[in-house]
Design brief:
Layout: E1 4-12, H1 17-35, E2 41-50, E3 53-62, H2 69-87, E4 95-102, H3 105-109, E5 120-124, H4 133-150, H5 157-163, E6 171-184, E7 187-200, H6 206-228, E8 236-239, H7 262-265, H8 285-302, E9 308-315, E10 322-327, H9 336-346, H10 352-358, H11 363-372
Parallel strand pairs: 3-4, 7-8
Antiparallel strand pairs: 1-6, 2-3, 5-9, 6-7, 9-10
């Protein structure tokens, strides 16, 4: 009998502390690249709350030319605007603490890979955006809930019409969505569980929140099953299992860190082994290598060379050589050696080529990262399509 494997994914809402930190890290990246597209940086962001005032600490190593006093004033403005947008608030100021250091000269002058790393990505042939089901569902449900919150409780029209739930008043910005999926090989066996944590106002009783969100999620799942001719097999839907969540959301209850996000940035239980993608310049392999690995994986399944592809690239700081490992769960028409040979012949695997191919020195791209709060759900991003 074929063995079954469980894959899980968790998507944080945009007001979740480490998501807030990640958005800020991406916006700071956009600012640095707008000053100098060749900027080198590795940024750490951590938020907290004291005396009813948010506090954001930003540190890291930068190209020496970025270390200007005026930089801190501009960054404080960017942080405040992002916080107010995500939390639908009008705070006049946020306390910021910057502790930047110049990047070591050997690193700053290195023109090859800016670090060592083993970025990884996967693609399925017949799933939405070629994503694992658990990843697609978690991020999509997150986006639905965030859209309701930012649209003053109004439910997206299609879901409203099908579910009978038109508005959900009283949501707040923090929360997360976890999805567990069971596979036999690469075939989905079932969606086992969907667990939602959603911060909410006291005017929205937790039982009402559960009833309304359950209707929406069940309707959403039915529509997807019909569209993709697939069965999810009645997953257990749990919403705020511990009861009311009216206090302690955002930085008030949790000091975030964008470095807590790597398992959600990438592909989690498929073996993600990289740092968070956010807050690093594009010479680092965490982001750039992962985008390239995803690009290769998508190409392989779209070109019918495999029904599933897991692509790992291996970078060594200061080296031109790039390791490659591709597994397809025995779905490829080629041997593993032939497939890896094909990829090496048709794809540039170094760091500089994908930086140019994907436009990774463009500040607008990092602003988009902060807006969509994900790297693989959006099919318009170049590594998610042909």
């Amino acid at each position: 009998m074929a063995e079954k494997i469980l894959h899980a994914f968790e998507a944080g809402r945009r007001g979740k502390p480490d998501e807030l930190d990640t958005g800020i890290a991406n916006l700071i990246s956009a600012y640095f690249l707008s000053i100098n597209p060749l900027s080198r940086f590795d940024i750490r962001v951590s938020g907290s709350y004291k005396n009813n005032v948010p506090i954001v600490r930003v540190s890291g190593e930068l190209t020496a030319s970025l270390l200007k006093q005026s930089t801190k004033k501009e960054l404080s403005k960017i942080i405040l605007e992002h916080y107010n947008k995500i939390n639908i608030s009008t705070l006049p100021c946020i306390k910021t603490d910057f502790n930047f250091k110049p990047q070591a000269a050997p690193l700053a002058e290195n023109t090859l890979s800016g670090d060592s790393g083993c970025p990884l990505a996967v693609a399925y042939k017949n799933t939405p955006n070629h994503l694992p089901w658990e990843r697609f569902l978690a991020v999509d449900i997150r986006d639905i809930i965030d859209a309701i919150y930012h649209n003053h409780g109004e439910v997206p029209y299609a879901l409203s019409q099908k579910s009978g739930v038109s508005r959900i008043y009283g949501l707040r910005a923090d929360g997360k969505i976890g999805v567990e999926a069971l596979y036999t090989g690469i075939s989905l066996d079932s969606i086992c569980a969907i667990t939602i944590a959603a911060e909410h106002e006291p005017i929205l009783p937790v039982q009402e929140l559960r009833e309304q969100l359950t209707k929406l999620i069940q309707t959403y799942l039915r529509l997807l099953q019909r569209k993709y001719s697939i069965a999810f097999n009645n997953p257990v839907i749990s919403i705020n299992p511990l009861g009311d969540w009216n206090e302690g959301g955002g930085w008030k209850g949790d000091e975030g860190s964008r470095e807590a996000k790597p398992y959600r940035d990438g592909f989690a239980t498929y073996g993600v082994i990289e740092d968070s993608f956010s807050g690093e310049d594009p010479t680092k392999p965490s982001g750039t290598g992962s985008f390239l690995a995803r690009h290769i994986a998508v190409r392989l399944v779209k070109q019918n060379l495999a029904d599933f592809a897991r692509v790992v690239l291996v970078y060594t700081i200061g080296s031109k050589n790039v390791g490659l490992n591709i597994t397809t769960n025995n779905t490829s028409k080629l041997s593993q050696q032939e497939l890896e040979k094909y990829v090496r012949e048709h794809f540039p695997l170094g760091i500089e080529e994908p930086i140019k191919l994907f436009g990774l020195r463009n500040p607008a791209l990092y602003k988009k990262f902060a807006q969509i709060s994900d790297f693989f759900q959006d099919s318009t991003l170049p590594w998610n399509s042909l």
